[in-house]
Amino acid sequence: MKVFKSVILASILAIPMAVSAKASDMAPTIPQDSASTSGIYLRGDVGTSYLDWGTATSPWGFTGGAGIGYQFDQNLRTDLTWDRSGNFTVAPGASISTSTVLGNVYYDWKNESPITPYIGAGLGYGWEWDNNGTQASNQGLAVGLAAGVAYDMTNNLALDVGYHFHDILSSGTTVPEHQATVGLRFKF
Protein backbone atom coordinates (compact mmCIF):
# COMPACT_ATOMS: atom_id res chain seq x y z
CA MET A 1 0.00 0.00 0.00
CA LYS A 2 2.89 2.37 0.81
CA VAL A 3 4.44 1.79 -2.65
CA PHE A 4 1.04 2.38 -4.32
CA LYS A 5 0.66 5.77 -2.52
CA SER A 6 4.18 6.77 -3.60
CA VAL A 7 3.43 5.94 -7.25
CA ILE A 8 0.17 7.91 -7.16
CA LEU A 9 1.90 10.94 -5.53
CA ALA A 10 4.77 10.84 -8.05
CA SER A 11 2.26 10.63 -10.93
CA ILE A 12 0.33 13.64 -9.64
CA LEU A 13 3.53 15.66 -9.26
CA ALA A 14 4.67 14.72 -12.79
CA ILE A 15 1.45 15.89 -14.49
CA PRO A 16 2.40 19.62 -14.61
CA MET A 17 5.79 18.76 -16.13
CA ALA A 18 4.20 16.51 -18.75
CA VAL A 19 1.64 19.19 -19.67
CA SER A 20 4.40 21.79 -19.92
CA ALA A 21 6.53 19.53 -22.15
CA LYS A 22 3.57 18.78 -24.43
CA ALA A 23 2.71 22.50 -24.67
CA SER A 24 6.25 23.34 -25.72
CA ASP A 25 6.11 20.60 -28.39
CA MET A 26 2.92 22.14 -29.76
CA ALA A 27 4.30 25.71 -29.84
CA PRO A 28 4.85 26.91 -33.41
CA THR A 29 8.44 27.16 -34.54
CA ILE A 30 9.06 30.26 -36.60
CA PRO A 31 12.08 29.77 -38.86
CA GLN A 32 14.45 32.69 -39.16
CA ASP A 33 14.95 33.37 -42.82
CA SER A 34 17.73 35.49 -44.26
CA ALA A 35 15.35 38.43 -44.75
CA SER A 36 14.86 38.76 -41.00
CA THR A 37 18.58 38.63 -40.14
CA SER A 38 20.17 40.73 -42.89
CA GLY A 39 19.42 43.82 -44.89
CA ILE A 40 19.60 47.59 -45.19
CA TYR A 41 18.35 49.76 -42.33
CA LEU A 42 17.83 53.46 -41.58
CA ARG A 43 18.37 54.91 -38.13
CA GLY A 44 17.60 58.13 -36.29
CA ASP A 45 18.63 59.11 -32.74
CA VAL A 46 18.06 62.00 -30.32
CA GLY A 47 19.40 62.58 -26.84
CA THR A 48 21.62 64.58 -24.57
CA SER A 49 25.36 65.13 -24.79
CA TYR A 50 27.96 66.07 -22.18
CA LEU A 51 31.09 67.87 -23.44
CA ASP A 52 34.04 66.79 -21.29
CA TRP A 53 35.80 70.14 -21.51
CA GLY A 54 37.44 71.40 -18.31
CA THR A 55 36.45 75.08 -18.63
CA ALA A 56 32.93 74.55 -19.98
CA THR A 57 30.36 76.51 -17.96
CA SER A 58 27.42 74.73 -19.59
CA PRO A 59 28.68 71.34 -20.83
CA TRP A 60 25.23 69.83 -21.58
CA GLY A 61 23.62 70.00 -25.00
CA PHE A 62 21.14 68.36 -27.35
CA THR A 63 22.31 65.72 -29.83
CA GLY A 64 20.68 64.22 -32.89
CA GLY A 65 21.77 62.01 -35.72
CA ALA A 66 20.82 59.84 -38.65
CA GLY A 67 22.38 57.03 -40.59
CA ILE A 68 22.11 54.20 -43.05
CA GLY A 69 23.44 50.72 -42.40
CA TYR A 70 23.53 47.07 -43.32
CA GLN A 71 22.86 44.06 -41.07
CA PHE A 72 25.11 41.22 -42.37
CA ASP A 73 23.78 38.49 -40.07
CA GLN A 74 22.25 38.26 -36.61
CA ASN A 75 25.48 39.47 -34.97
CA LEU A 76 27.35 41.82 -37.32
CA ARG A 77 26.17 45.15 -38.71
CA THR A 78 27.72 48.38 -39.92
CA ASP A 79 26.45 51.88 -40.61
CA LEU A 80 27.43 55.36 -41.71
CA THR A 81 26.12 58.03 -39.31
CA TRP A 82 26.01 61.80 -39.08
CA ASP A 83 25.63 63.36 -35.61
CA ARG A 84 25.31 66.94 -34.44
CA SER A 85 25.55 68.16 -30.83
CA GLY A 86 25.19 71.70 -29.84
CA ASN A 87 25.53 74.90 -27.95
CA PHE A 88 28.01 73.91 -25.27
CA THR A 89 29.11 77.06 -23.39
CA VAL A 90 32.88 76.71 -23.04
CA ALA A 91 33.60 80.21 -21.72
CA PRO A 92 31.58 83.38 -21.07
CA GLY A 93 30.17 84.43 -24.44
CA ALA A 94 31.70 81.46 -26.26
CA SER A 95 29.82 78.34 -27.27
CA ILE A 96 30.60 75.51 -29.66
CA SER A 97 28.78 72.72 -31.46
CA THR A 98 30.15 69.51 -32.93
CA SER A 99 29.41 67.34 -35.96
CA THR A 100 30.77 63.91 -36.85
CA VAL A 101 30.48 61.54 -39.78
CA LEU A 102 31.46 58.03 -38.67
CA GLY A 103 31.68 54.60 -40.23
CA ASN A 104 30.68 52.20 -37.43
CA VAL A 105 30.87 48.44 -36.87
CA TYR A 106 28.67 46.73 -34.24
CA TYR A 107 28.47 43.32 -32.62
CA ASP A 108 24.93 42.34 -31.54
CA TRP A 109 24.40 39.62 -28.91
CA LYS A 110 21.26 38.15 -30.48
CA ASN A 111 19.28 35.82 -28.23
CA GLU A 112 15.78 34.36 -27.93
CA SER A 113 14.32 37.54 -26.39
CA PRO A 114 13.39 40.73 -28.26
CA ILE A 115 16.17 42.57 -26.37
CA THR A 116 19.60 42.61 -28.04
CA PRO A 117 22.66 44.16 -26.32
CA TYR A 118 25.42 45.52 -28.58
CA ILE A 119 28.84 47.20 -28.66
CA GLY A 120 30.42 49.18 -31.47
CA ALA A 121 33.31 51.33 -32.65
CA GLY A 122 33.60 53.97 -35.35
CA LEU A 123 36.10 56.06 -37.27
CA GLY A 124 35.51 59.14 -39.39
CA TYR A 125 35.78 62.92 -39.47
CA GLY A 126 34.55 65.64 -37.12
CA TRP A 127 34.07 69.40 -36.88
CA GLU A 128 33.97 71.81 -33.95
CA TRP A 129 31.78 74.78 -34.87
CA ASP A 130 32.01 78.34 -33.49
CA ASN A 131 29.31 80.34 -31.63
CA ASN A 132 26.88 80.68 -34.51
CA GLY A 133 27.62 77.26 -36.03
CA THR A 134 28.75 78.60 -39.40
CA GLN A 135 32.52 78.17 -39.28
CA ALA A 136 34.53 75.12 -38.21
CA SER A 137 37.19 76.27 -35.73
CA ASN A 138 38.74 72.79 -35.46
CA GLN A 139 38.33 69.68 -37.54
CA GLY A 140 40.00 66.33 -37.95
CA LEU A 141 39.92 62.63 -37.27
CA ALA A 142 36.93 61.50 -35.20
CA VAL A 143 36.57 58.29 -33.22
CA GLY A 144 33.55 56.76 -31.54
CA LEU A 145 32.55 53.96 -29.18
CA ALA A 146 29.02 52.72 -28.53
CA ALA A 147 27.14 50.35 -26.23
CA GLY A 148 23.44 49.81 -25.77
CA VAL A 149 20.39 47.64 -26.21
CA ALA A 150 17.84 47.33 -28.99
CA TYR A 151 14.27 46.22 -28.44
CA ASP A 152 12.58 44.59 -31.45
CA MET A 153 9.10 46.13 -31.58
CA THR A 154 8.36 44.36 -34.91
CA ASN A 155 10.41 42.35 -37.42
CA ASN A 156 11.40 45.62 -39.13
CA LEU A 157 11.44 48.20 -36.32
CA ALA A 158 13.71 48.34 -33.26
CA LEU A 159 13.91 50.85 -30.40
CA ASP A 160 17.58 51.60 -29.65
CA VAL A 161 18.79 53.00 -26.32
CA GLY A 162 22.52 53.63 -26.16
CA TYR A 163 25.64 55.36 -24.90
CA HIS A 164 28.05 56.91 -27.40
CA PHE A 165 31.51 58.37 -26.87
CA HIS A 166 32.76 60.70 -29.63
CA ASP A 167 36.06 62.53 -29.81
CA ILE A 168 37.44 64.86 -32.47
CA LEU A 169 41.24 64.75 -32.60
CA SER A 170 42.56 67.92 -34.19
CA SER A 171 45.71 70.03 -33.86
CA GLY A 172 46.69 68.54 -30.52
CA THR A 173 43.28 69.23 -28.94
CA THR A 174 40.39 66.88 -28.37
CA VAL A 175 36.64 67.40 -28.08
CA PRO A 176 35.39 64.41 -26.04
CA GLU A 177 31.62 63.93 -25.76
CA HIS A 178 29.48 61.48 -23.82
CA GLN A 179 26.01 60.95 -25.31
CA ALA A 180 22.88 59.18 -24.07
CA THR A 181 20.49 58.57 -26.97
CA VAL A 182 17.23 56.92 -27.87
CA GLY A 183 16.31 56.14 -31.45
CA LEU A 184 14.68 53.90 -34.01
CA ARG A 185 16.11 51.51 -36.56
CA PHE A 186 13.93 50.59 -39.52
CA LYS A 187 15.04 47.57 -41.57
CA PHE A 188 13.81 47.12 -45.15
How are the SSEs placed, and which strands pair?
Blueprint: H1 2-26, H2 34-37, E1 39-51, E2 60-71, E3 76-91, E4 94-108, E5 115-129, E6 136-152, E7 157-170, E8 173-174, E9 177-187
Antiparallel strand pairs: 1-2, 1-9, 2-3, 3-4, 4-5, 5-6, 6-7, 7-8, 7-9
Short description:
By secondary structure, the chain is an alpha+beta fold. The protein contains 2 helices and 9 strands, in the order ααβββββββββ.
CATH C-level class = Mainly Beta
- Largest sheet, order of strands side by side? 1-2-3-4-5-6-7-9
Return the CATH architecture.
Answer: Beta Barrel
User: How many discrete structural domains?
Assistant: 1
Straight-line distance between termini: 67 Å
Estimated structural class: alpha+beta
Descriptive labels:
alpha+beta, disordered N terminus, 2 helices, 188 residues, Porin
Describe this structure in words.
- There is one protein chain.
- By secondary structure, this protein is an alpha+beta fold.
- The chain has one domain (40-187): Beta Barrel (Porin).
- Helix content is 15%, strand content 61%.
- The protein is built from two helices and nine strands.
- It has helices spanning 2-26, 34-37, and strands at residues 39-51, 60-71, 76-91, 94-108, 115-129, 136-152, 157-170, 173-174, 177-187.
- An eight-stranded antiparallel barrel has the order 1-2-3-4-5-6-7-9.
- The chain is elongated and about 50 Å long.
- The N and C termini lie far apart (67 Å).
- Residues 3-12, 18-24 and 26-35 have low confidence and may be disordered.
